[in-house]
Write a structure and sequence with these properties.
Elements (H helix, E strand, L loop, with lengths): L8 E6 L2 E5 L6 E4 L8 H23 L3 E13 L7 E13 L3 H15 L1 H4 L6 E8 L1
Parallel strand pairs: 5-6
Antiparallel strand pairs: 1-2, 2-3, 4-5
Length: 136
């Protein structure tokens, strides 16, 4: 099996504003001041949420749950000293769907955060990952 390689390019625009993405793909703005777009640390939380959300959707589909809604809020606590990396990240999942119950939702989330989400798996192993769940 050949390893997959991802490729992106980032271009400085002004101040702490950068624009980038994959070659010939969609671009996004990342702003170190969190003004013209999300900053790098916020973007990391968004990436973790999107990665886990994608897993949860796919897993619930395999469980034959008809998903009607999914919202994920993520909070990251950062160190005060440099490097100001995350020390803990909390996901709050809000799910609605036909055939959805606590057990299925928790199973999908656990599988995502503990096994499948590449972004979470790429984080430092000492970062505490927790989550909450609300069913609508």
């Amino acid at each position: 099996m050949t390893a997959e390689t991802k490729h992106v390019a980032l271009v400085w625009e002004r101040g702490l504003v950068f624009r980038g993405g994959p070659p010939d793909g969609p671009e996004m703005v990342i702003d170190g001041d969190n003004t013209a777009g999300p900053g790098p640390m916020v973007t990391l939380l968004l990436a973790a949420a999107a990665c886990s959300g994608s897993d949860v959707v796919a897993i619930l589909e395999k469980m034959r749950v008809v998903l009607r809604g999914l919202r994920i809020e993520v909070q990251g606590v950062r160190r005060e000293q440099e490097p100001r990396r995350y020390t803990s990240i909390r996901f709050d999942f809000q799910l609605a769907g036909e055939g959805l119950d606590q057990a299925r939702a928790r199973r999908a989330i656990d599988l995502s955060l503990e096994k499948y989400c590449s972004v979470v798996a790429s984080l430092a192993p000492d970062i505490q990952i927790t989550y909450g769940l609300t069913l609508a």
